[in-house]
Amino acid sequence: MKRTSQTQLAVLGALSVEPMSGYALRQAIRETLGHFWSESFGQIYPALADLESKGLVRRLGQGQTSGSRFEITDTGLVQLKTLLVEPFDSSPPRNATLLRLFFGRHLGDDGCRRLLLDARADAERQLANYAYIRAELEAATDDPDAKYFLITLAAGEASGAAVLAWTDEALGILDR
């Protein structure tokens, strides 16, 4: 799946939850999907214009793209379902910590230890945030999307727990 299709998927998916402005859409993607996906304003606004021109979203009220609220159309829901089942390319992950650790000989053990402790602290912060999100989702018994949000949340929790285990192992390797 091309990058533009992925952006359309993110935009249509977010609008399937509720109508929102381009700015609110960017905030929702950053705050919700941002745990595993990102889109910039430079991607969202052209995608909204393209989706509107194709009748996949419609503008609610008057105004410029940045101030208007958008909602997904019935045709947009069909397109969303099509995009959801399309095959996609999995990009290799980009991890700045691992890149630096790979060349850790030049950084030294103390520098590597700092990177690992920073990664551990970041994972602990993420896990605390995920615990808060989990409590909110589990309380939302009438939200039809809650169980799907919980599935993606569980992936984040598992990744955070894996980082904690990995940093413990890596610190042990450095201490040998």
Task: Walk me through this protein's architecture.
By secondary structure, the protein is mainly alpha-helical. It is 68% helix and 6% strand. Strands 1-3-2 form a three-stranded antiparallel β-sheet. Helix 1 packs across helix 3 and helix 2 packs across helix 3. It is elongated.
Short note summarizing the structure:
α1 (about 5-15) crosses α3. The chain is about 70% helix and about 5% strand. It is mainly alpha-helical.
Question: Helix and strand layout, with pairings?
Answer:
Elements: H1 3-17, E1 20-21, H2 22-31, H3 41-53, E2 57-60, E3 69-72, H4 74-85, H5 96-102, H6 108-139, H7 146-175
Antiparallel strand pairs: 1-3, 2-3
Helix pairs in contact: 1-3, 1-4, 2-3, 6-7
